[in-house]
Specification:
Helix content: 55-70%
Radius of gyration: 23 Å
Number of domains: 2
Strand order of the largest sheet: 2-3-1-4
Oligomer: single chain
Length: 303
């Protein structure tokens, strides 16, 4: 089997997801270990808590490394998320937590051997904050786009986003504000808190920009002789509604069932994969729509 054909199979697609998640985690861990920690800038969430514990115990005899706290807290959150998100999401998240823990271990060890250098030079806290936040936001976005997560508040955001049309970045932003505020209680330095808030806002903007590109609504017209199987899959696995229309091919003069589906753009890949697996000969039309209002989409707003 050629590499191209393998990547089009379910196993190949899963492998691509895992590789993409690893790339996202590399961006995220790089933002932390290279640009955040050396300058004393921390974000929120579980990673922020782990960083606070790491920085706060550095000069104590019982120093707790960041990766240890990160792993333990994420293990507790994953146990809560199994019922809501299912094994498919949690399996990738467990993978992500393990890989992230290893990357943080490698990154922190490497930076420690190098003397924890400030790669941008002394006094460049703000620029380091900007670069680190952008890398972290991009990393989380890549993970979410491939059905994964970096753990922590991302798990909480994914649980809420599963049933509510709420911005992922906004959920992360709100859940992380208190953690960043705790910087002042540990270090009594208001600059750390301000840099943390700036980094969090930038990270949320980058996350939303990356993820929202696939949150737009789309409309599908699906022409297939296996319309029942496709409709059942969409209802049962994608939890989207399907409308069946009666049609007729003018050239063939044969009756044809037409499926009409409204979905989020992020669902397009999953839908195309399912159609290809069920009926590779199906004819599919996809178009962007300006707005979709109702259950599962945006709320109807009247000025």
């Amino acid at each position: 089997m050629s590499n191209t054909k393998f990547l089009q199979t379910k196993a190949g697609r899963e492998l691509k997801d895992y590789l993409a998640i690893a790339i996202g985690l590399l961006c995220y861990s790089g933002g932390w270990t290279i640009f955040m920690l050396p300058y004393g800038v921390t974000l929120g969430g579980v990673t922020g808590i782990a960083a606070l514990v790491d920085l706060g115990t550095q000069h104590m005899p019982f120093h707790i490394p960041m990766q240890a706290t990160y792993f333990v807290l994420n293990a507790m959150l994953l146990l809560m998320a199994l019922r809501v998100l299912g094994w498919k999401f949690c399996t990738k998240t467990i993978y992500a937590v393990i890989v992230m823990t290893l990357m943080l271990q490698i990154g922190n060890s490497t930076m420690a051997r190098l003397g924890n250098p400030m790669v941008l030079g002394e006094g460049e806290n703000f620029m380091s904050c900007v670069i680190g936040a952008c890398l972290c936001g991009l990393g989380i976005g890549i993970c979410f786009a491939n059905n994964g997560s970096t753990g922590g508040t991302d798990i909480i955001a994914a649980m809420i986003n599963k049933n509510h049309d709420v911005s992922l970045g906004r959920i992360v932003l709100l859940s992380d504000l208190i953690v960043i505020g705790c910087n002042y209680l540990v270090f009594h330095d208001i600059r750390r808190v301000l840099f943390g808030y700036v980094a969090l806002i930038l990270m949320s903007l980058v996350l939303d920009y990356y993820v929202n590109s696939s949150r737009q609504s789309v409309q599908f017209f699906i022409f297939s002789t296996k319309h029942q199987e496709i409709a059942d899959y969409i209802n049962e696995n994608m939890h989207r509604g399907v409308t069946v229309l009666d049609g007729m091919g003018w050239y063939s003069k044969e009756p044809m069932k037409v499926l009409v589906v409204l979905a989020k753009k992020r669902d397009s890949v999953s839908l195309f994969r399912a159609i290809k697996d069920i009926d590779p000969k199906a004819f599919v039309s996809q178009s962007n729509v300006i707005g979709v209002y109702g259950k599962g989409f945006d709320k109807i707003k009247v000025k």
